[in-house]
Amino acid sequence: MLDPRYVAEHVDEVRAALGRRSPAAAASLGDDFAETVRARRAAVQEVEGLLQQRNAESEAMAKLDKKSTDFAEKREALKALGTRIKEGEHKLGELEKKLAELVAAVPNLPDPSVPDGADETANVVVRAWGTKPEFSFTPKAHWDIGTGLGILDFDRAAKLSGSRFTVLFGAGARLERALINFMLDLHTREQGYVEVLPPFMVKDSALFGTGQLPKFEEDLFKIERRSAERNYDLYLIPTAEVPVTNLHADEILEAASLPIAYAAYTPCFRAEAGSHGRDVRGLVRQHQFDKVEIVRFTTPETSSAQHELLTSHAEEVLKRLGLHFRTSLLCAGDMGAISQKTYDLEVWLPSQGVYREISSCSNFGEYQARRAQIRYRPEPKGKPRLLHTLNGSGLAVGRTLIAVLEQYQQADGSVVVPEALRPFMGCEVIRGR
User: Which SUPFAM superfamilies does the annotation name (predicted)?
Assistant: First the structure.
């Protein structure tokens, strides 16, 4: 969330920055917001005027004889003035609350280094790694490879749960587990992350903290509503970013402890509202999928460098797996609403001849930290400041499995296991269950 007071005092500047995202983003600071800002400004002036008046009259009263009629009258007038001040402060508090609610729905401001543009066509490829695999045959899509090997079953999953679910059998299930273990080992043993296994259900307050609520509720699976016994809703997590980032909600960390780096495996659950007709086949867009997430907490001064570091850590997973990919800097119009700057890692899928996003590595600035009240103390006994949060997929496991099946497929329908995964798989080639 943006700083409500900063937005109120720099409306035109903030609206211009949001306009880099889209006209709709700029319009989020509309008439209701403008009226609330005007009312808040007037309330501030009224309270400040009353406080000045009380100070002046208190000084005048101090010069009067305490037994005089003027003193008694002045005392009663000050009591009435105190009541007006309390009423004005209450009104100001309500306006501050409304302003914060309105600002909570406003997207993050794009970093100045983010390119302008309305959609993915304006994204900038900053680097690529490896080369596109070449085949002496027409490469198959992962759903054909997986069903041919008997390791992916979409029909039985539909029987169990409906569309956009998958059952993995044999080497398919083992490959999923191997990818998870490989990623966690790399992040924790070599890159310095602390492994976390968080709950897979969270309160609505956690989803507000990371920015999914209230705007993106339709993409979430709500599993239990608040009741007389429990004053919060429960949701299945859409990503480990939610519980891991909120580990430090309402905390003040010491500067010496930063940066803090966590890696977490979780299943993820998304309703995929509004995505009908997109990626309906295969594993690309599922209601349930696995992911290994990397999250970093850092100071504002170091967050840019930490963002580059986190991105390199996600890239290393693809490099170790020998998968051709590229890294793109997203333009303002293609970024997620809560991101300040995002790199997308896009892996090559030979069956479609396209690059597909496999990880988004984002710097949120203080946007999430303000919502979740995650602060740090720059120096002992110093005034707490909001820190910066960053996260990325390291990686989306299902999409990594897709890339392995497609980039390592063989003419006979088998799939070569990347060397980095062989210790976890116990084989060099997948030939079926």
Answer: Class II aaRS and biotin synthetases, tRNA-binding arm
